[in-house]
Write a structure and sequence with these properties.
single chain, binds adenosine-5'-triphosphate
């Protein structure tokens, strides 16, 4: 796991208020030279932070930044341990590589991923401090077969959390993207590994764009958005994180006890493509039809020329018809 240097951490804490800090003030507080300040700022910018330097005023972040606070998250969410790190390759990767270490519901959050991943080897891009980015460990005693539909449950928990913070325009795109204003707001990646005892380890990764940089973000090859584009007022990051963790753990318990039953209506209610013409991409094949929501297993119901068909599985991508 990579770490921020002590100097970078100190500088970040200073700049987090979004105000200008003069080179002189920074130099005094961190006991470093002007040249060293420029060097540290360069390092932070390379992580995707928007830092402005103005002659006569000093250095400032484009927006104030609420850094992750493990103690606050733990206090508000309760339950299994919650860890925060500044830098990591991927929270899912880290949890998946140490499966026996975690308690059910344990969480790992990060400010920045050097190798964030999406489905089927795709990349997840996360400029420093711009997201709620985390993984949660769960174990399904019933094994992998019981996991069908689980990623849809995660989407429901995330959107319902956002709605509880007043973001009512947020919805879901099958199978597991969170959408707002016709663009991707969050991604969900569920990874699993069977145990010899028949149960199944589950690592649930979530990246939710809160306040992404102002300039175009290299590597995102589809329309995307952030909460800051929906509402200028910034969302309290640690409170949102704690509320999501709390709701996600409850949703997973409910899913374990009763399967998709109680999530079916909730998911369909949040479906942004409901009754709209769509294309399903299955490798080279493309199927057109009208999206009619999901069934009890979490499969997508598509109305095609030959009637209603249901599609299940991780190899399928849904796109608007044109
Ligand atoms: P599918 O519809 O099959 O899920 P997807 O392209 O959305 O397709 P995912 O694996 O869910 O695939 O997510 C990875 C994709 O998300 C990347 O290829 C990239 O286009 C996009 N992406 C990466 N980072 C971000 C981000 N921060 N915000 C929004 N989209 C992103």
């Amino acid at each position: 796991m990579r770490h921020l240097t002590t100097r970078q951490q100190q500088l970040l804490r200073l700049l987090a208020d979004g105000e200008f800090h003069s080179g002189e003030q920074i130099g005094r507080q961190l006991s470093i030279s002007r040249a060293a300040i420029s060097q540290q700022i360069k390092g932070l910018k390379a992580l995707g932070l928007d830092i402005f330097s103005v002659t006569g005023k000093g250095h400032a972040l484009a927006q104030p930044l609420e850094l992750l606070d493990a103690a606050a998250l733990q206090r508000d969410a309760g339950g299994a341990p919650i860890h925060c790190v500044a830098l990591i390759d991927s929270t899912n990767q880290y949890m998946m590589s140490r499966l026996v270490d975690w308690q059910k519901g344990e969480c790992l959050l990060t400010e920045y991923q050097t190798a964030g991943r999406g489905r089927r080897g795709r990349q997840w891009i996360s400029p420093f401090g711009s997201q709620l980015m985390m993984s949660l460990y769960w174990r399904l005693e019933e094994g992998m077969a019981a996991a069908m539909g689980l990623s849809l449950v995660v989407g429901v928990a995330l959107v319902e959390t956002l709605q509880s913070f007043g973001y009512h325009e947020v919805g879901l795109k099958w199978p597991n993207d969170v959408y707002a204003q016709g663009a991707k707001l969050a991604g969900i990646l569920v990874e699993m590994s069977a145990t010899s005892g028949g149960s199944c380890h589950v690592v649930i990764g979530v990246g939710l764009n809160l306040q992404m940089p102002l300039q175009p973000v290299h590597g995102i090859n589809q329309p995307w958005t952030a909460l800051s584009a929906i509402r200028a007022e910034s969302v309290p990051r640690n409170r949102l994180g704690a509320e999501f963790i709390r709701r996600l753990r409850l949703a997973l318990q409910e899913f374990e006890a009763g399967g998709m039953a109680s999530f079916l209506t909730r998911w369909n209610h949040l479906d942004v493509y409901r009754d709209r013409p769509v294309r399903l991409l299955l490798g080279e094949q493309e199927i057109r039809g009208v999206a009619r929501g999901i069934d009890e297993q979490g499969g997508l119901v598509l109305e095609t020329e030959s009637g209603l068909q249901t599609y299940v599985g991780g190899e399928i991508s849904l796109r608007p018809a044109n």
